[in-house]
Design goal:
about 120 residues, Hypothetical Protein Mth938, Chain: A, five-stranded mixed sheet, three-stranded antiparallel sheet, about 25% strand, globular
């Protein structure tokens, strides 16, 4: 059986630490969004504190065309409040919550499969 690596044009998370994430060779030291959607580059996202998050940080992604949002909640697993996710749920966008390290790993797998996925990654200062 011949095995070939999946090819994807999506940004790839190359490495991460508790205070930075490297995407396509560029280090980011603040919370960011990483998307496999066409023409959506990695960008700063939200805040650096879980307690400061709100529906305004999640709602814009409801109309993005993503089929799944991965919420990386920082160094520990903390679930988003249901009111933060109402717009996503109303549009049928799946939401999975995990710590940021797990979200980085999961994003790479799903993006390499060609899935329409967005990772919202909290890096706490």
């Amino acid at each position: 059986m011949k095995l070939q690596p999946d090819k994807s044009n999506a940004p790839t998370i190359n490495a991460y630490d508790r205070v930075w994430i490297e995407v396509n060779g560029v280090r980011h030291a603040q919370s960011l969004s990483v998307s496999s959607l066409p023409d959506v580059p990695p960008a700063p996202w939200a805040t650096n504190h879980f307690e400061a998050l709100s529906a305004n940080d999640f709602s814009p992604w409801a109309q993005s065309g993503a089929e799944l949002i991965l919420f990386g909640s920082g160094q520990k697993l903390r679930f988003a409040k249901p009111q933060w996710l109402q717009d996503l749920i109303a549009r049928g966008v799946g939401v999975e919550t995990m710590d940021t390290a797990a979200a980085c790993r999961t994003y790479n797998i799903l993006a390499s499969e060609g899935r329409k996925v967005v990772a919202l990654l909290l890096i706490e200062s």
